[in-house]
Design a protein that fits this description.
Blueprint (H helix, E strand, L loop, with lengths): L6 H21 L7 H17 L2 H12 L3 H8 L1 E2 L2 E3 L5 E7 L1 H7 L7 E6 L4 E4 L8 H4 L7 H7 L3 E3 L15
């Protein structure tokens, strides 16, 4: 017959185990469950589909190529979550402005921009594009994807990780 462990020994072992479990619950990283991280995960799926829709991208490029300089200056180069650069490069994107959350009564998510460029790379930024990407309406069409990346503080990421939740703007 097996010998039973005395209660004092059970308590002596159980208390540290329970303390470690409680500490793990309290201090475990929570980024995967934040509204911002959830938004990022859903946006990546949408952007991946959009960036693979070559017909839609080509139609946007054709539309932009027929616009007047006034239409381009007023933001015509960015629509339907696709921005077309003067050299034909593009970025498929999704943007969330912190003001949208506040006005809609949703979770307070800080500014976040995610995109996948015509170069196949994923990008993120915390640049404040404003509601409906309004800040782009006052800027001219960038010459290239490289210029867009510089102008709007874009950084590369792998398209999956929470690296995309880090701050890029304003520059430190």
């Amino acid at each position: 017959m097996a010998k039973r462990m005395p209660w004092k020994r059970v308590i002596f072992v159980a208390i540290p185990v329970l303390a470690l479990a409680a500490a793990a619950v309290v201090f475990w990283p929570r980024s995967a469950t934040t509204p911002r991280s959830q938004w990022k995960d859903a946006a990546v799926v949408e952007i991946a589909k959009l960036s693979e829709d070559r017909t839609r991208i080509e139609l946007r490029k054709r539309d932009v190529s027929t616009m007047t300089s006034g239409q381009l200056w007023n933001g015509g180069w960015v629509a339907d979550q696709i921005a077309i650069m003067r050299d034909g490069q593009w970025i498929a994107f999704k943007n969330h402005c912190r003001k949208e959350s506040r006005h809609a009564g949703g979770p307070d998510i800080e500014d976040i921009f995610l995109g996948r460029g015509s170069d196949g790379k994923w990008y993120y930024s915390t640049y404040h594009f404003c509601v409906g990407m309004a800040s782009l309406m006052s800027d001219g069409q960038p010459a290239s994807l490289d210029e867009f990346k510089v102008n709007y503080s874009l950084r590369e990421f792998d398209g999956r990780s929470d690296e995309a939740l880090k701050k890029t703007w304003p520059p430190t």
